[in-house]
Structures are given as structure tokens and as C-alpha cells.
Amino acid sequence: QKEVEQNSGPLSVPEGAIASLNCTYSDRGSQSFFWYRQYSGKSPELIMSIYSNGDKEDGRFTAQLNKASQYVSLLIRDSQPSDSATYLCAPRAQGAQKLVFGQGTRLTINP
Amino acid sequence: SAVISQKPSRDICQRGTSLTIQCQVDSQVTMMFWYRQQPGQSLTLIATANQGSEATYESGFVIDKFPISRPNLTFSTLTVSNMSPEDSSIYLCSASAQRDYGYTFGSGTRLTVV
């Protein structure tokens, strides 16, 4: 079992709709969770972090965490073509410094 | 969050040679990391660069191949030694001032070994 699993996609969503990206992780000790966006040819950019069960909203982005089920998700409301990118999920285990990255979900927003 | 300057941005190197990649952070950071990202793949951690001590390498990566320096809290280098075409990849450094503040990435070094 991979440490962090994401559907590689591509995930195609019409403009204006909600894009839903999911991530499961195997380390129950994971405490912090980060979502990164990576445009083609660019380095990853941090867009959301979440530490507690429940939802965390930031603009059009909502991160959801369920530690009991070991999954974290990212919702993007009112999707725009500029949201087309690869989204990487990265948990950090308790007591650890490093992040472990999933393979990423490639998202395409269709005008 | 920290801003990281990474150089070179790209290079084409002959097999058997070495390349040193530099990362400079605009503020003191406790943690710095080096990743590799092969085309179409996710990020694989090479090592954690520890200030004042040897780097901590992940499984499959060794110091002789990827020596790392971290002389202070704002700077680190990664050397890719005795390169082969299999080392062609994007190399990224990452840093964080505090563990839960998120980790920032440099712009990456695109390495091609011929």
C-alpha cells in the first residue's frame, strides 16, 4: 500500500462547477496535511493546510480532514480554467519533519 | 513564508561529471529538504539537510552520490555526482521556518545528462 494515494486523473470539470480532489494516507500518526498546486513546468505552491478534523475554508478552496478514515480532500468552488494543474496531497507524520507526497491528481477545468 | 532562490534553473551535463545546485532562503529556516521529480511523477524526498550535521538520506539515496551541505540556516547545496542519464530529472529544494507553517519550494533545477 502506498503511503499517500491520490487518483492520478485526469479529472475534468466544467468551468464554474465544484472540483473534488481526494487523498488517503496510511500513517495514522499523520498530524498535518498540506495541499499543493503545481502548474506544468513549475514548482509546487502551497495552497491549503489543515490540522484538525473538519473543514477549513480559504476563498474558493475548502480542505476537509477525517483522521478516523485517514482521508483528506480539497474542494475548489467556482472552478476556473486557471485552476487547471496537478494537485498534490502531502501529510506530515507526528514527530517527523518531512512531507510525503502523493502522486498528484491532474485537474482540467473546461471552459 | 520563506522565499527560496535556487540555481541553476537548468543545465545539460556530460555523464560522469558532477553538478552542484544551490538554494538560498531569504530568512532563517529550521528545515531544508531536497526532492527529485522525474517527468510526470510526484516528488521523491532525497534527504533532509541538517544545519551543522550530516544530512539524513532516504532509502535509495546515498551520500556519495548526493552529497549535501548546509553551512547555516539560510543556505544549502546538493551535488549530483558521477552523473548518468538516469539522473536526468528536476531537483527541488524546500524549506520551512516552522513545521506547521507549510513548506516552500525553490523554482527547481532541470538537469539533463547526456
Written description of the protein model:
The complex is a heterodimer of chains A (111) and B (114). Chain A is mainly β. Chain A is 0% helix and 55% strand. In chain A, a hairpin with a 2-residue loop joins strand 6 (54-58) and strand 7 (61-66). The mean pLDDT of chain A is 94. By secondary structure, chain B is an all-beta fold. In chain B, the strands form two sheets. In chain B, strands 2, 4, 5, 6, 9, 10 and 11 form a seven-stranded mixed beta sheet that branches. The model of chain B has no long low-confidence stretch (mean pLDDT 93).
Strand residues, percent of chain B: over 45%
End-to-end Cα distance of chain B, whole Å, is 37 Å
Give the strand line-up of the largest sheet of chain A. Answer: 1-3-8-7-6
Major sheet of chain A: 5 strands, antiparallel
Please bin the fraction of helical residues of chain A. under 10%
SS element count, helices of chain A? 0
Number of helices of chain B: 0
Principal-axis shape of chain A = globular
> How big is the Rg of chain A?
13 Å
Distance between the ends of chain A? 36 Å
Low-confidence segments of chain A, ≥5 residues, pLDDT <50?
A: none
Strand residue percentage of chain A? over 45%
Helical residues, percent of chain B: under 10%
Q: Note the quaternary state here.
A: heterodimer
C-alpha geometry of chain B: globular
Provide a compact summary of the structure:
The complex is a heterodimer of chains A (111) and B (114). Chain A has no helices and 10 strands. Chain A has 111 residues and is mainly β.
What topology emerges from the helices and strands here?
The complex is a heterodimer of chains A (111) and B (114).
Chain A lengths: L3 E3 L4 E4 L4 E7 L4 E9 L6 E6 L3 E5 L2 E6 L4 E6 L8 E9 L11 E6 L1
Parallel strand pairs in A: 2-10
Antiparallel strand pairs in A: 1-3, 3-8, 4-5, 4-9, 6-7, 7-8, 9-10
Chain B lengths: L3 E4 L2 E4 L5 E7 L5 E7 L5 E7 L6 E2 L10 E5 L2 E6 L8 E8 L7 E2 L3 E5 L1
Parallel strand pairs in B: 2-11
Antiparallel strand pairs in B: 1-3, 3-8, 4-5, 4-9, 5-6, 7-8, 9-10, 9-11
